[in-house]
Amino acid sequence: MFEDSIVPATLIIIGLSLNLVLILNLVKTQKKLITQQHDFQDEVKKSFQSSTQLFNAELKRVSEVSVTQIESLFSIFSTLKPQLPLPTTRGWAASPDLLKEIISLIHRQKPQLVVEASSGVSTLIIAYCLQRLGTGKLISLEHESKFAQATQSHLSLHGLDDVATVIYAPLVEVEINGAKWLWYDLTKVKIPEAIDLLIVDGPPGTTQKLARYPAVPMLHEKLSKDAMVMLDDGARADERRIVEQWMAEFKMSHSEYLPLEKGAYLIQM
Ligand SMILES: C[S@@+](CC[C@H](N)C(=O)[O-])C[C@H]1O[C@@H](n2cnc3c(N)ncnc32)[C@H](O)[C@@H]1O
User: Fold this and answer.
1) pTM for the whole structure
2) Contact 217 CB / ligand 1 (< 6 Å)
């Protein structure tokens, strides 16, 4: 009788133990899941906070850039008073903050000859400056025929033909210290006097590695002894290297980085 009741009691104990183990496992799993859920929530919260911080920083940067560009445009228009609308700035063209720097530089330096590598809105701005000063000429080199024509016709419409000329100079292979480069074809370009200001904003960076390096080697002999060189897109690694090479190879006396929208370098011979 006693033995008869042992078997079911043992089975009940085993069953209860199994249930207990199952319940303990379930509790353990649930705890683990809750911890994982909290970790996940923390991760989501952290990543949301850091992307919000990045977004706010970028928003602040973009609004500061926009304000600077608008202020620069006001300065440009109030100084030069263009007679007609100007081509758009930024993107492929120079940004207003650089154009404003160029205007200040030309008024300080009063160059007799400005040479510019690549034409566009900058050509009109430089030409307006020289016209306003009543002295100095601009030669703008342009490798694309349609843009050379477009800029030349803008110059005519703005009454700036007397001050500035766009020369269509396709890119050709040139040799500098035994290495091959692409640069504006200067064979038909007559540079009548020493260049006081060289503005380098072409050819496009996609043309070749260190695309604008040839500017100084190709025109060095034509630069006046106090010439200044302005190089756009100074925030790019290529432009930084180009300036280092120019400084070393041509013993230029001083270079200054201008923290503009695209960055620029102003270099003194
Ligand atoms: C870096 S952009 C600079 C042009 C110029 N220095 C300026 O700031 O206006 C260089 C090249 O853009 C090209 N370009 C000129 N006008 C353009 C336009 N409306 N759309 C696209 N590219 C243009 C020209 O071939 C020019 O040599």
Assistant:
1) 0.84
2) no
